[in-house]
Amino acid sequence: QQQVKQSPQSLxxxxxxxxxxxxxxxxxxxxYFPWYQQFPGKGPALLIAIRPDVxxxxxxxxxxxxxxxxxxxxxxxxxxxxxxxxxxxxxxxxGSGGGADGLTFGKGTHLIIQP
Amino acid sequence: DAGVTQSPTHLIKTRGQxxxxxxxxxxxxxxxxxxxxxxxxxxxxxxxxxEKEERGxxxxxxxxxxxxxxxxxxxxxxxxxxxGDSALYLCASSLTFKNEQYFGxxxxxxxx
Lengths: 115, 112
Fold this sequence. Notes:
The complex is a heterodimer of chains A (115) and B (112). Chain A is built from no helices and eleven strands. Chain A has strands at residues 4-7, 10-14, 19-25, 30-38, 45-50, 56-59, 62-67, 72-77, 86-94, 104-105, 109-114.
């Protein structure tokens, strides 16, 4: 199965710092790359997403950087806050004709923001 | 507008039993996808339905089946439950099969 490899598995950042989570994918048919935030006992919430025609997308404190040639993308959380403490998942979705129309997720990053 | 709703919230079943999970998508969304999330892992794709037709299937055994109704709600059925089926089952809603997917709160299934 085509994988999405996510790192680090866990991350501790001081309040106000920058949190960086990285993902690498194998399936070149992916054309949509979302990030989800999940709190314990809740479903994943869509945070921000990018398509390969741009190298960066910013929404508030959250930025996705995308490197198509390296097949890598990352999430940057600026001015990290204790409320950002959660598990973050990256994912990829194939374009039309690229296979089963489901998201392939990374294994997640458990982020803790220390006050 | 209401988000994705799922029922029941929690469910406890015995090995060998059958279970049905339900999902109502966001109003106006015509596609529903099902995922299984084992504790400590990312969600795994099970099925996607669009306009009542199966659009995709993940690597799950035939004990798993689903359907989508004319009002776009969906059911996931799992037969002959195994202990390994214990997980959070998530439903995701999207406008079409290639748009952003929004997840519901999930159904926590425990098989004993």
